[in-house]
Amino acid sequence: QLQLVESGGGLVQPGGSLTLSCVSSGFSMDYYAMAWFRQAAGKEREEVACMTSPGHKMNYKDSVKGRFTISRHTSANTVYLQMNDLRPEDTATYYCATTPPKYNNQATCARQYDYWGQGTLVTVSS
Prior knowledge:
Elements (H helix, E strand, L loop, with lengths): L2 E5 L2 E3 L5 E8 L8 E6 L6 E6 L6 E3 L7 E6 L4 E6 L8 E7 L5 E2 L3 E2 L4 E2 L3 E5 L2
Parallel strand pairs: 2-13
Antiparallel strand pairs: 1-3, 3-8, 4-5, 4-9, 5-6, 7-8, 9-12, 9-13, 10-11
């Protein structure tokens, strides 16, 4: 059974950093696009960053470019989101997502995401 488990959220001051982790099981990450989404209170879920498979091309939401970095450690079945220079508007629950290879897309990472983690809360506040 495919499973995603996020960790690493917490409270951080503006300008601070956090690294989120998403450990996967039940599938080989080699062939799956991986993504991070977030959802702030009262707002729709939005894609923050993604990584294609194959090729490991990375895409980012404009507001996080230069501050966030998505990476994967395939042998550890883990994808990360390094977040620097955090801002109050980054406050949200962050979700890891993936999808079967048939939905992979080299331009957008994936046409849809079918599998989601439970989320980890990031709060940026002084």
